[in-house]
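Pilot study result, target chain (292 residues):
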Amino acid sequence: MASFEEEDTPLAAAAAAAVYVRRGLKGSFSKPKKTRILTIANQKGGVGKTTTAVNVAAAMGLAGLNVLVIDLDPQGNASTAFNVDHWEDASGTFDVLLDGETIADMMSPAPGFESLWVLPATLDLAGADIEMITTVAETERPFLLKNALEVFLADHEMDYVFVDCPPSLGMLTINALAAVSEVLIPIQCEFYALEGVQQLLRTIEFAKERLNPDLDVSTVLLTMFNSSTNLSQSVVGEVRGYFGDKVLDTVIPRSTYVAEAPSFGQSVMTYDPGSSGAVAYLAAAREIAERK
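Predicted structure:
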């Protein structure tokens, strides 16, 4: 990651970082040989899951790559961050999974982006697990998203598809794991960082054995890092020791701007491109793009 400590003032440092981000986004990401589909998952809430999905996707979209974000979280936070309508009477993921609509018809372009689309999570998605159990054959339930994506990608060229999962291990998350080849796990640099990750890994292993042999945890991203605490440093060492080279070199710092951006219907990449959070997410997106 670039360093801006040599600038004379905080304002100058922020301006230099913003220029760095903007320049770093212009055509600098190579296209993958085929569509990469990643599920961002962690059933523990508050770890930066949706924030990671939004900002990595935003960095790639601003770089000119074709990106689709599928919001599978009934809270719809990814949809909110991209300022895409997901309130009453809106259409989205629920319609694709349970009403047979196509992704192409239900997705919306993200305002401010030329090549990024969002399949929003609407209020109906909160009842999707029950709806699947009561109306969909058991053998078909895990593959609703997979089938919809196959139809969509047959006619639409996408470089990346990011699936933002709910903080649970229900049928929505199972659908996400059955539909993708890669899992990205965000882990916060806080006490009990690895709590619950073992359960997620067991679920991933189950999905790999029963539903999707191509599934793999390809990426782990450390979030909410505080350089002034020994705890954060300790968690980084612990996670790197456990997951090895699956952990990105980039670590996402705690950032007020990252937290504020969704309330303005934006990613931090557009809300404050000179902030430390934006610079870090750009670096993380670049690492992901260079890994495969």
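One observation from the pilot: The domain at 35-291 is CATH 3.40.50.300 (Rossmann fold). A full batch analysis is planned for the follow-on phase.
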